[in-house]
Amino acid sequence: MGTPLIPLRDERCDLVAKLEFCNPAGSSKDRSALWILEKAIDRGDIAHGTTVVESSSGNFALALAFYCRMLGIPFVPVIDPNCNEATEAQLQLLCERVERVSIRDTTGGYLESRLSRVQDVLVEPGSVYWPNQYANPDAREAHYRFTGAELLAQAGRLDYLFVGVGTGGTIAGLSHRIKETHPGCVVVAVDAEGSVIFGGPPKKRRIPGIGSSIVPPLCGQALIDRVEIVSETRTAEACGVLAAEYGLYAGGSTGSVYAAVQDFFARHRPGPRRPRVAFIAADRGQAYAGTVYDPMWLRQLDAEAAQRPGVENLAVK
Ligand SMILES: Cc1ncc(COP(=O)(O)O)c(C=O)c1O
Question: Which atom of ligand 1 is nearest to the CA of 251?
Answer without folding.
Answer: 1
